[in-house]
Task: inverse folding
């Protein structure tokens, strides 16, 4: 239960940070969970953001869960290094640039690819851990 609560808290924190990072770079301290512009956006934009929110939550929660459960660090590297790079390029970029074509916007919209790479990296790291420990593959073992 503690592990799930820790992962959920991390996912929520990452969601808030990721959604507000663009505003913070531009000097506006906000804590928006649903940007007010989204309420007046066309349905396709609302659908895009609706699909993005759970994904960004998973990007924040999964690396913390993987570290706490198995001691894996590669999912965190795969998730947070590109986010840091996108944040860095966002800070150095044109403040008038549209949000979704910014580096951070591409990262947020492309969360599925980042998530898949994090799972792949975690699986490979876990396999290496098990191989080094000399443990064979057993179904149902966590």
Result:
């Amino acid at each position: 239960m503690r592990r799930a609560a820790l992962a959920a808290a991390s996912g929520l924190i990452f969601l808030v940070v990721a959604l507000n990072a663009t505003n913070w770079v531009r000097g506006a301290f906000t804590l928006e969970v649903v940007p007010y512009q989204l309420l007046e956006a066309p349905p396709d934009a609302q659908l895009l953001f609706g699909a993005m929110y759970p994904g960004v939550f998973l990007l924040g929660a999964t690396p913390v869960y993987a570290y706490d459960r198995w001691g894996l660090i590669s999912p965190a590297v795969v998730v947070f290094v590109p986010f840091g790079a996108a944040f860095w390029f966002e800070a150095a970029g044109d403040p008038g640039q549209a949000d979704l074509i910014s580096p951070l916007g591409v990262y947020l919209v492309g969360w599925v690819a980042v998530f898949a790479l994090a799972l792949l990296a975690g699986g490979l790291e876990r396999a290496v851990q098990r191989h080094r420990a000399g443990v064979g593959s057993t179904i149902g073992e966590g």
